Structure formats: C-alpha cells, structure tokens
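Subject: mismatched residue count in predicted assembly?

I count 745 residues in my input, but I want to confirm that the predicted structure covers every chain. Input:
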Amino acid sequence: MRSVAGLGQRLMADFTTSTHRAKWIFTPQDLKEKYKNANKRAKQTLEQHGTTQMKVDIDGSFSLVKPQNDAKDNADKHSRPKALKTEEEQLLRAFYEFKIQDVCDAFKFPRKIQATALIYFKRFYLQWSVMEHHPKNIMLTCIYAACKAEENHVSAEELGKGIEQDHQFILDNEMLSLGFDLIVYAPYRALEGFVNDLEEFYDEELVQSEILKSLHDSAKMEVDKIMRTEAPLLFPPGQLALAALRRSCEIHKVIDFDRYLKSMLSRQHPSHANSELRASMNTIDIMVNKLETPTSKDVKHIDRKLKSCLDPSSHEKSKKRKHRSKESSIDMS
Amino acid sequence: MSEAVVDRYEKREVLGEGTYGVVFKAIDRKTGQTVAIKKIRLGKQKEGVNFTALREIKLLKELKDPNIIELIDAYPNKGNLHLVFEFMETDLEAVIRDRNIFLSPADIKSYIQMTLKGLAFCHRKWVLHRDMKPNNLLIGPNGQLKLADFGLARLFGSPDRRFTHQVFARWYRAPELLFGAKQYGPGVDVWAAACIFAELLLRRPFLQGNSDIDQLGKIFAAFGTPKSLQWPDMVYLPDYVEYQHVPGQPLRTLFPMASDDCLDLLSKMFTYDPKSRISAQQALEHRYFTSIPPPTEPASLPRPPPKRESVNSRVSDFNPQDGPTVLSPPRKLRRVMPQREGFDINAQLTDTMDDHGNEIRQTAGERSGQAPMSLDFSVFGMRPPSRPTINSADRSHLKRKLDLEFQLPEEE
Ligand SMILES: Nc1ncnc2c1ncn2[C@@H]1O[C@H](COP(=O)(O)OP(=O)(O)OP(=O)(O)O)[C@@H](O)[C@H]1O
Ligand SMILES: [Mg+2]
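Triage response: the counts match. Full output below for your records.
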C-alpha cells in the first residue's frame, strides 16, 4: 500500500521537472489574455479577408484559406459574417470538451487518454481561435494524438469511422500538436495515491473497503468534471486530485477530509502552506460549480455563426436561402 | 510560422543515415550552436507521424539531464519532421573500436559512470531505454557521454503493464527478454549496461550470440546455467526451455585485468534474477566508483577524432603542440583506421588545435612511443565484427508486437 502512495508521490516529483509544469500552468490573467488575443486576431482577419479559416498542410504549417474573389468583393460591410465573441468561443469549446469525453467513452478509452485529449484541446485553443480552426476537427485530432502519445493505438481511419468523420482531417491536424509537449499529467494517478494513503490513515478505524471504493469512484467523476473547467491550466494535477477528493468526501459524508488533509500535509509536506492549498481547492470548487455543459441546442446559433466565418460563401447562401424562403412564404399567403 | 523556424538553422553536411531518415549537421543562427538535425519523412502516411519519432520527441522533451541527449527543437517543414539535437562528436562504439585508443581503468570507470548516471535518471523518470548499446551512447565535444536514440523507449510504472520482448540489439538483451518476458523493468537496461561495461574492458562485444538461442547459450557459458534457486521465476517465463547445465567461468578469468571492485559490480549487474539485479542508482553507489583510481574527467577522456573528420597520422606530425604525456603500454600503439571518408587536412588541423584538447593529448601520447603502424581494415579485407542491430525481421516482428500491444489499455 505504502508503495502505491509512494508511487503517486514519485510521479509528482516528475511533474516538478515536466514541460507540463514549466510551460502549461498559467495564471487566470494569462488565460484571459490569451483567449482575448486569439479572438482579436481572428476578428481582424475576418475584417481584412472576409474569412478566418486556416488551412493545415501535411506538415502542420498554416495558411489562411483565401475566399474566392467574388465572395470577397461582394461582401460589403453588412453582409460580412459576424465574428464570435469570446464568450461564444468559450461556450463552443465547452461543448466540444464534453464531446471529447463522449467520444472517448464510446470508444471505451481509459480515463487517462480522455484527460490527455482534453488538455491538448485546451492548450491548442490558447493559441488559436475556434474561428481559425474548427473545434470539431481539433477535437478529433486531440483524441487521436492522445491515443498515440499514450501508446494506445487506434487508427485514424477507425476513429474517423467511429464518429463518421473524414480521417484525413485528423492526420492533417496531427502535427499541430502543441509544440510536441505530449506528456501530460492527469489527476487520476495522484488521486489513486491519495485514496490509498487515506485508506492507510483510517486503517485502525476500519473504514470499509466498499465505502472507499465508492469514494474513489465518485472522486474520479469529480476529476472528470474538473477536467472540463479551466482548472487543469491553472493548477497542478495533485491539487486537482485533492479538490476532487474533497468534493467526493462531501458527497459521502463518512470521512473527515479536513482531518486527513492536515495529517497528510504534516506527514508529507510539512513546509506546504495549508491555507494556500485550501484556497486553490476553493477556486477549483467554484469552477466546477459553475461548469456549463452546453447542449447542441445551446450552441446551434454559435455554430451557424462560425460556419459563415469559416466559409463566407455559406453565409451568402444561407442568406439567400432565408430570403427565398421568405419570398415563398409570402407567395403562399 | 514554420518559416521562421526553418531559417533558424543553417544546414551543413550529412552526418549519417538512420532508419527513419537523414541526420545532418547545422548551425543554429540564434545561438551559434552546432546542432544535429534528424529529418524524418512524413509523406502521406496512413497514420501520420511515425511512432518511433513520436516516442523520441515525447520522452526527450521531459528528460533533461547532462547524460541524456538534448532535444533542442522539433518542427515540421515540407513534409518532413525535423528533430534538432545537440551536436555530438562521436559515440562509444567508435571509442571501443578504435585500437589507437588505450582505455585506462579510470577511463573505463568514467564512461560506465556516465552511462549509469544517464540510465539512473531515465529510470527515476520511469523511462526504460530498451536500446542500450555503445552506438547509442553519444559523446559530446567535452567528452560527456549521453544516452541517445529513444525510439524504443517507454514509460513504465504500472506494475502489470505488458511490453514486447523484442527490444535491444541481441548482444545486449537480458536473459528474461530472451526467455520472452512481457513484464519487465529497468533491469533490462542494467543488463545491457553490464554488457557495455564488459565491452569496455574487453574492447570487443562480450556475448556475441548469432541467434536468440545462441545468445542464451553464450550467457550461460559465461556465467553458468542459472539454477532455480538463483532465479525462481525463470521457469514461468513464456519461452523458457531447459538448457543443459554448464558450470560457467569465474569472472576473474573472463576479465583478468579488472579490479576486485570492478568485478564485484559487474557480477551484480549481470545477476540473472532481474529482481535481485542491482539498479542503476545502486550501481552508482557501489564502492567501485569511490575506490581508486577516480574516474577520469570527461574532458580528458581518450576519444577518436570527431566523426567525418578522419584522423591522419601526418596531421599529428604537423602538430607543434606538446600535450601531456600519456603513459600507456606499447600495444596500444597499433593504429587501426576504420574506413572513413575524405578529409581536409587544413580543416582537421585547425579543428585539432582549436578545441579538441584531448586529441592533442592522444597524438602527443603516440609520438612519445614508437611510430604508429597503420592497420586499415579495408586493406586487409577484414572488418570489425558487425554488430547486430534490431534487424528487419525483428523490426517487423516488433512492429506487429507493438501494434498488438497498443490494443491494450495502458493503465488504469
Ligand atoms: N546528435 C548527433 N550528433 C551528431 N551525429 C549524430 C547525432 N545523432 C545522430 N547522428 C549521426 O546520424 C546517424 C544516424 O542516427 P540515427 O539515430 O537516426 O540512426 P542510427 O542510430 O544510426 O540507426 P537506428 O535508426 O537503427 O538506431 C548516427 O549513426 C550518427 O552518425
Ligand atoms: Mg542508433
């Protein structure tokens, strides 16, 4: 048992020297700024060129997909597609992050892959706007890349088939993968370590193993939720795991989490500021409580807006279509 | 975006070719540093970036240590994936093969210490190298030895994780792999390091089997057929077959020149049962490394001339500088020139004088003895023993195995 807790700790030790920690943990202000910048850039591109879509070459280089001249010329100020707001982008990302978990569940991928894919997805959209790269494609790419990085092979074709998508998209995008920082630390391992440690801590009081198991299970579900918030870009996996464990303890009400936390900190991290850790957990808690799970209905209008950003001709067409249907309805009357 | 990256490196000559593409020398315009760029063809492959390259990138990005090759950058361009490494002058195989080089006990200690340090670091980070052999141990401009070629490396850590046993070039394969073990750990790298240790002492590969069966035969002939007491789990291994009992030889007779400490460490690294085999970290703490002589400073280690700039004995005659005298037995003075390609005497000379202090030392050492005799393999029609790498049959086998392996969930 001790060795498993030790394992969790040693993995954390690796985290301290990882690219994950060095390059992919941010402050809330960092994140805000990045989202704003990506959005601003895409907006400018839209104003200048009438479209935002980026093309991906086989080797991962990007270029703007220039619209046909007529589309551009015809596009006067008013018929131009409207850019997405940052909040709309956020909602769309949230939608596809939920989808990532859906797809991974459908393929029965382990949780680690799900988490890796989610983190790739989040990292990707720190650099790009959804207006530049459609999140549906990036979602698939991230799942594919996560499988590959975790050595859990699934063919792009199979993945594409499984979700009725063109697998060439997946391959075209693979190279985008995030500056090649492919190893990410998910909270599940750390959680396992804490649960084992908890079991040991409560040993003499004979906490039943079924209780611990259901505590662990619901904590995993809490991690699943945390993974869809911004928290993984803000906090190390160990803190995410503890926050999930605390939430799970609150549900089950059999274990005094505070007592455990105090003892764990005094045993393992005597120097760690207790209050700081609690503040992090509280922040994570708030994020989970605010977590949105948009349905396709919720994002439908955003998706339509996105379509016309990516492909202005579709915008024109849809306008004409609308127009025509109006005319016909008039005819009908 | 990628244009800027491409402009950063000024391409120079080709350094070599591996399985996945060409490696060439380049200068990093940003830092002035010399680098080696491995170019991996992407093409319109059905499965995108190839696994080996992806593994190498993925792991090397996380492994930063003085004894691990540094991956400086990775970028795609024109249908190729480019991996930018720090430039390394030579490798341990070239050192071992170069009959012109005498390796003192302190030199050997230094080389194996750096090997074990790199390995211990990998294992601490839960990475198995799985392709340890002298030619994957590169040597930098200051004599530092670094583990390279992480294309077969993997994370371990989950106790029940199953791997393919088709890893390592055969001569470096641990007995548990030869018996088909699927669940193995860092011990496989330690066994390979022991083979490299032995090779440094003998100046030839130690256990040169020509098939997997023969490899086990060679191992048993050296150390004796393992008794079940020595290695209780052996009989449960998938490909276990009973071998006729052979007694093995005392290490002392196999390595007559080695010190007692050296032999003690070697025997602990060559332990049959992977569970009782010494770890890389424990090996570093062995008294061999604190007893005299202390390991040679990397910068003073004898090394062959940098790759592609083949040494010519005339060059050393031009060299006016007096280096420190190297005491070495006369037999080291047999000069062996492995086939190399053209060279430029002037470039060679400047190079030698500028920053390769230890070559000056070497050549000075030669001059203090009798005239070196040129012994060119290509002239005599004999070649150094060719080393088995993971051959193509193994590779396709490996590929199949790995594909199968990928079907299994990795953890949890
Ligand atoms: N960092 C480096 N500095 C200098 N030369 C290098 C470096 N890395 C590789 N090389 C040269 O390029 C050659 C090819 O290297 P690569 O790792 O691609 O393949 P390999 O190790 O020779 O073969 P394999 O792919 O079978 O392992 C090496 O033999 C070496 O000569
Ligand atoms: Mg190699």
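Chain A touches chain B through 36 residues (CB under 8 Å). Marking this ticket as 'not a bug'.
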